[in-house]
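Dig into this one:

. . .
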Amino acid sequence: MEWLVLLLLGFAAATLGSLIGLGGGIIVVPGLLILQDVTGIISGITPQVAVGTSLLIMIFTGLSSTLSYVKQKSIDLKSGLVFFIGSGPGAIFGVWLNQGLVMNQFLVIFGTFMIVISIVLWLKKHVRPLSVPVGRNLYWTDHQGVEWTYGYQPVIGIMLGFIVGSISGLFGIGGGSLMVPAMILLFAFPPHLAVATSMFMIMLSAIVGSVSHILVGNVHWLYALALIPGAWFGGKSGALLNRRLSSDRLVLLLRIFLIILAFRLLWQGMTG
């Protein structure tokens, strides 16, 4: 039973994560904590183990979706590597921050962070991107033949990557919930290119973060083995849907879902 539940959790998280560029950890981490607290199906999950296991899963989500996006030619590999220069060290710093958190502290902080993410997802729709890209101009033509112009200063991209990487290492999420809106609003990235590039950066950051967590024993290997197949196929599924669907409705559903989960975690943290 627990393997089936974890398989479905991995698939759902990876599909949404790959579709919107979040990475999926924003669902895996609270999913593991709530499954343990409410159902008792799984056990032995501390905040550190939830985060470490989630980051390991995101390697496979990121790799699966990145390969799909490369085939679609909808990914900026050079920009992803620039952002990773910051996100790699940031992931290690986030892992270090994570070690000092106890369960109640983690639940309250993570629940608050999820509310912030739902607000960011709302702002992404209502705030206009900069009309002029910051930095040298880059160009990309989408599958409909529309040419987009975007750009950024590498130093700003690296700094943003460090912030996103720190959040990834601390909470076990991809950081795309902040990276994608920033790429769209500040750097004028085309939305589909931003999602694909974010997933590439998330994969690289997850490798660094998960290795750091493995070294300190923060991975539940049996649960990871159950989550990985769902994450792999979910990553491919989300990449396919990203090309075919407008994500507005899914973003709305995700925001509602995140708020519900956030208040559940806040209640659990403050009353536990």
Notes: Residues 114 and 262 are 6 Å apart (CA to CA). The chain has one domain: 2-98+126-246.
